[in-house]
Structure formats: structure tokens, C-alpha cells
Amino acid sequence: MPDWNSRLEVSLDDGTVVTPIDSLATTITTPRSPVHSIEADNVGAIFGPKTATFTMSMKAIGPVTAKLTQMALKNTKFNIQLAEKTGTDWSFKKLLFRDCLIISTNPSNTAPDGAPVASFNGIILGFGGPHDIET
């Protein structure tokens, strides 16, 4: 039975650990529409293009925030890897999102009672390959 003491680590393809990270959310869509006929319902499906996006939020107190901002301004592609740092409670050992591009960034306002937060939104051009998921 898992004890949920695991910690995840998010890193870039050059080994840079994204820290301190608050959240990483990914969305993968695989659109399908049913095809109906006058003879029967659901005789097939029309498949649309797969898309994947991410949103990453972190405290803007380390060099990674500046690095990601530079990558956004230069349209630099990079990989994001999500892996177990400690523990074995998760259903995967590694998730790899290849050829990511940041499409928008939103640094928060600076306040005297806490660190500012930077949010990065992007698209994932490479995902779902044979080596992208380790279970």
C-alpha cells in the first residue's frame, strides 16, 4: 500500500531542476467524433489531431525562472521530464514531454509579504512516443 511520501521532480533536458515549483499541469486531448449512418448509430469515428499543453507555476526566486523567460523570448524548444525523486507511490517512473515551447508567461506583482510567482503556458509538440513514459 502506498504511503504517499513520494516527491516528484521536474527537470529540463539539460538536467536543470525546476525549483521551487508550485505546480505543473498538462492537458492532452485526443478528439474523436462518432460517425452515424441511416442504418446504424456509431458506425465509426473521425479522429482529430492530438494536442498537448502545459502550465507551470513557480516562485520567481531562482535562476530557472530567468532561464525559462529567456527560452520563451528566443522561441527555444526544450524537454520537460517529470520523474519520481523519492518514493515509489506513483504509477509512473518518468514522463517526458519533448519539444516544448512557451507561448505565454505571466510574472505576478511583487508584494512585501511573499515571493512573486511566475506562470508559464506552453505547447508540447512531442509526446506519447515509445520512450516518453516509464512505468
Named CATH architecture: Roll
CATH homologous superfamily heading: Hcp1-like
What's the number of structural domains? 1
Silhouette: globular
Radius of gyration: 19 Å
CATH third-level topology: Pnp Oxidase, Chain A
Q: Specify the structural class.
A: mainly beta
Low-confidence stretches: none
Overall average pLDDT = 86
The CATH class is: Mainly Beta
> Describe the biggest sheet?
7 strands, antiparallel
Topology, number of strands = 9
Question: What percentage of the residues does DSSP assign to strands (E)?
Answer: over 45%
**What is the helix fraction of residues, given as a range?**
under 10%
Order of helices and strands: EEEEEHEEEE
Tally of separate helices: 1
Give the termini separation: 17 Å
Task: Report on this structure.
By secondary structure, the protein is mainly beta. It has one helix spanning 63-73; strands at 7-12, 21-29, 32-35, 44-47, 51-59, 78-86, 94-107, 117-126, 133-134. The strands form 2 sheets. Strands 1, 2, 5, 6, 7, 8 and 9 form a 7-stranded antiparallel sheet that branches. Strands 3-4 form a two-stranded antiparallel ribbon. The longest helix has 11 residues, at 63-73.
Produce a short descriptive summary.
Helices cover 8% and strands 50% of the residues. With 135 residues, the chain is mainly beta.
Question: What key attributes describe this structure?
Answer:
9 strands, 1 helix, two-stranded antiparallel sheet, mainly beta, seven-stranded antiparallel β-sheet, Pnp Oxidase, Chain A, 50% strand
